[in-house]
Amino acid sequence: MKFTYEVEQDNIKIKTFLAQKGISKRLLAKIKFAGGLILVNGQEEIVTHMVNSGDTVEITIPSENPSEKLLAQKYPLDVIFEDEHFLVINKPARFASVTSSVHPNNTISNFVQDYLIRQNYENKKVHIVTRLDRDTSGLMMFAKHGFAHSHMDKMLQDRTIEKKYYALVESSDMLEKEGEIILPIDREEGSIIKRCVAESGKQAHTSYKLLEKKDDTSLLDIKLHTGRTHQIRVHFSHLGAPLLGDDLYGGSINKIQRQALHCHSLEFIHPFTNEKIKLEANLPEDMRNLINE
Asked: Where is the Pseudouridine synthase RsuA/RluA-like domain (predicted)?
């Protein structure tokens, strides 16, 4: 995969110039030692070569092979967006995002690995940008090469990727028409999974709007400003409004057998085209049926 840049300043080393373009030291080492190439005005150069305004720098990033540890498994993906840099799918509930000792296969990563191989893309390594809990549905982003992944990691750190969720929660007097929840979250003592609101935790910020209320169920539109583990589930449970189906945090499982949480919106500035990308995924049937019944 090739990328071309025009230099706009004098007396700058190639490695410094490329760092300004988002090329990490790790990726630069891969270009140098794993079959990549750096050209300046058509001539191969080393990373310490000085470039000047008007020079053209072209980099070739070596292709990435699929991981030998990740089994490719066929499953029909609901592709919402795709270009040469990114893949965004609408993840169904009940599938883990990544493999683990508990879920060694049949994960979204296995399915995307198969998709990349069958499409015969130049890069076949799976790069997860945003992941979702096993029982959460909705938009999930993958980068199609390491350079795209590093760009999106930086955007996640800078909080310039906007994610919004629909959630069905148990109605609570503590819920307002719209509000902000700014409460720290830490791991619950004695548990390796469960989180809780605790002063010892990391700051977490969630905002929400009440879209609809029906009997003892409320439909919320939620925006994450931070990305703590189980953040939405913990914050609303703390308000006495646990997600339906979320038995880990006190939600009733009488109406739905998974936490009623769906990532419906993903918005970001495309790092390679500078376009504003806004993607949507409709409320899934199991959650829609609950609010319509």
From this structure: 85-238
How far apart are the C-alpha atoms of 181 and 209, rounded to whole Å?
11
CATH 3.30.2350.10 is the classification of domain 163-262: yes
Q: Could you give phi then psi for residue 29, rounded to 5 degrees?
A: -65, -35
Is the separation of the CB atoms in 218 and 241 below 8 Å? yes
Q: What pairing do the DSSP bridges indicate for beta strands 205-214 and 217-224?
A: antiparallel
pLDDT tens string, the chain, 293 residues long: the values are 899 999 999 999 999 999 999 888 888 998 988 889 999 999 999 999 999 999 999 999 999 999 889 999 999 999 999 999 999 999 999 999 999 999 999 999 999 999 999 999 989 999 999 999 999 999 999 999 989 998 999 899 899 999 999 999 999 999 999 999 999 999 999 999 999 999 999 999 999 999 999 889 999 999 999 989 999 999 999 999 999 999 999 999 999 989 999 999 999 999 999 999 999 999 999 999 998 87
55 catalytic per annotation: no
Pick the CATH number of 2-60 from 2.60.40.10, 3.10.290.10, 3.40.50.10490, 3.30.1360.70: 3.10.290.10
One fold for 64-158 and 163-262: yes
CATH fold, domain 64-158, is: Pseudouridine synthase (3.30.2350)
Active-site position among 133, 153, 173, 247 = 133
Cβ of 28: how many Cβ atoms within 10 Å?
A: 19
Domain ranges of the chain: 2-60, 64-158, 163-262
Q: How many CA atoms lie within 13 A of 292 on its CB side?
A: 7
Q: Give yes or no for a contact between 242 and 236, defined as CB atoms under 8 angstroms apart.
A: yes
